Amino acid sequence: TTPHEPEGTSLVLPPCNAFLRRCLYETIEDEYPGLVLERASSDPSAGPARNQIRATRLSPAEKSRRERRLRRENWDRMLLHDVGFAVVFRAMSDACNGRVFSAEQTRRFLDGLSPELSMPAKAQDGEGRKIPLVIHNGLHDLMFLLTHCHNARLPESFEDTKKVIRGYFPVVYDTKILGTEYSDAIIKSGNSALGDLFDTTCNTSDANSDVPSLKAPLIVNQDGRSQGQAHEAAWDAYMTGCVFNALCNRILESKNRFSADLTLDDLLHESADGMLREWIGLNKIYMHVSLYTIDLESSGPAPGMHDPLSSGLSVDTTFRVSGITTSVSTRDILQALTTGNESEEEAIRELRYEIIWVDDTSFFVGTRMTDCVSEDDADATGLVASHVRSKLHAGLGGDVEILPLGEYFKKKHEDVTETMMSTTSETGGIVDSLVSVAMSPLKILGRAFSYGKRSSEDDGIIDSAKKPRKSR
Fold first, then answer.
1. Is the separation of the CB atoms in 187 and 211 below 8 Å?
2. Comparing C-alpha atoms, which of 161, 165, 172 is closest to residue 439?
3. How far is residue 357's CA from residue 455's CA, in Å, rounded to a whole number?
4. Is 353 helix (H, G, I), strand (E, B) or coil?
5. Are 50 and 44 in contact (CB under 8 A)?
6. I want to staple 5 with a disulfide (CB 3.0 to 4.6 A). Which of 1, 127, 186, 286 is the partner?
7. H-type alpha helices, 232-361
8. 365 has which bridge partners?
C-alpha cells in the first residue's frame, strides 16, 4: 500500500504490562471480532509504544489492501533474510537461457504469493529470447558466483570451467573487451576503467568532444543523491549498462555506413553469432595479468591453448625474456623500451607495451601496434621485433635471453619431448606440459578461486601484487 491509501481507523490503547495486554487481546477479540489487533510498534527503540496495542477497524477494501501489504512485506523479508542470493543467481541464469516467467508468475511473485522465485515457464513457441549478461572485467565475478552458487571448488580444467560459465550464462559481453578490442581509436586510446569509459561515452558535456555522449537515464539513490560512486554495486551495474549501450551504438554507427541500418536490438537478438563475435566480442572476456583474451566458446583437446592473444598482440612481437637480475623492475623495462623512441618511425613511436611477470628473473612483453599498422604487415612486424630485441639487450644487458612467443613454445615442446623420451615414468603428456607453461598467469587466478591442482610447480610464480601487469 502507499501512504495515500489509508488502512482503516485505528486507536492506540494506553501502555500496560504483558499480563494486561494478554487479557485485552482475548477480551477485545471476543467482543469485537471485526477489529484487527497488533502491537503499536515492533521497533526496539520505540519505547512505551512497544507495550501498547493498536486496534484498527477496516472496510473490506481496506482489509484487502492491508493483506496485500503484509504479504509483500513478509515476502520481501523472506527474500532478504531467508532465501539468499543463490535464488537470484538461478533467476538470472533462467533469463539468460531464455526460460521466461509468465505474466501470471510475475504477478503472483510481486503479490507475495509465489512459493518459488526461480520456476520459469516454458516459452510457448520454443525457446524464449535470451537476455545477455553484460559485465565489465567480470571474470573474477563470474568465478565468485560459481564458487558460491554452483560448487565451492571449480573444475580442474579451465576449459571445463568455461563450459560451466556458458551453461549458466550462454550470452556474455564484457565492456572491458568491447572498449579495448572492438571500439574505435578514440576509445582504445583512452582509459578502459569502467568509470573513465562512463565519463567518456555517457558523461561528456564538452560540445567539441570527439566522442558523442549517450544521454543516459538518470537514477537516484535511496539516500537522495542523484549519482553513486564507483565500486558501489548498483552504480557499477548502471555504468556498465550505459557503457555497453554507448559503445555498441558507436560501433553500429561506423558499421552502418557500409551496410543496412541496424538497431542495437536487431544486432543483439536478430544477428548471427558470427557477426556478434566479430562486431562486439560475444563471449569474450578480459583476463587480468594475462596476454590472452578468454574465449568462452573455445574448446579442444589442449586446454587453455585456444584462447586468442589480446587484440593487437602477435606471436611474432610478443617475447619471453629471461635471465635478468632480480633488481629489475617494471619501470626499468618500460624505460629500456621507450627511451629515445621520439626519433623512430611512427610504428615504433606509437607502440604500447604489456608486461606480464613470470617470476623474479623472467617476464613476457607484448607489443601492441596501432590500428594504422596491419598485423599482417611483415615489414612492420620485423621492425618492431628488431626494435624490442635491441632495446631490451641495451637496457637489461646482452646476456638476457629473448625468445618470440612462437619460438618459446616450440622450444618448450622440444624440451618436453626430450624429457618424455628419456624417462619411463608416466607423465601427463606434452599437451599438459605446454599448458602448464602457457597458463602460468591462469594459475595465479586459480589459486584465488580454487580451480586447478595446487602443487609445487606453482611455487615459481611471483605474487602479482609484487610485480603486476603493466600497460603503457
1. yes
2. 161
3. 20
4. strand
5. yes
6. 1
7. 233-255, 264-270, 273-280, 330-338, 346-349
8. 319, 355
Q: How many CB atoms lie within 10 A of CB 150?
A: 17
Interatomic CA distance for residues 151 and 303, integer angstroms: 21
- The crossing angle, in degrees rounded to 10, of helices 139-149 and 85-96 is 120
**From first to last of its 472 residues, what are the pLDDT tens digits of the chain?**
444 466 788 899 998 888 999 999 999 999 998 899 988 887 777 777 778 999 999 988 888 888 888 887 877 777 667 667 787 888 889 888 888 777 777 777 666 666 555 555 554 444 567 889 999 999 999 999 999 999 999 998 888 899 999 999 999 999 999 999 999 888 988 899 999 999 888 876 555 555 566 777 777 666 666 667 788 888 899 999 999 999 999 998 888 776 667 888 888 888 888 999 999 999 999 988 788 899 998 865 554 456 888 877 888 889 999 999 999 999 999 999 998 888 888 778 888 888 999 999 999 998 887 665 666 678 888 888 899 999 999 999 878 999 988 888 888 878 777 777 776 455 444 344 434 444 444 443 344 333 333 333 333 333 433 455 556 6
**What residues contact residue 444 under an 8 Å CB cut-off, 6+ apart?**
289, 461, 464
CA 342, distance to chain mean position in Å, is 38
CA distance 172 to 297: 11
Q: Are 387 and 348 in contact (CB under 8 A)?
A: yes
Distances (CA, A) of 111 to 63, 87, 108, 152: 15, 18, 5, 34
DSSP 357: E
The whole-model pTM stands at 0.68
d(CA 365, CA 472): 11
Name the E strands within 40-164.
Answer: 53-57, 133-135
Pairing of strands 53-57, 470-471: unpaired
Radius of gyration, alpha carbons of the chain:
30
Measured CA to CA, the distance from residue 192 to residue 186 in angstroms comes to 11
Q: How far is CA 358 from CA 420, 427, 433, 451, 466, in A?
A: 24, 24, 16, 19, 11
The Cα-based distances of 266 to 35, 61, 248, 330 in angstroms read 57, 46, 12, 45
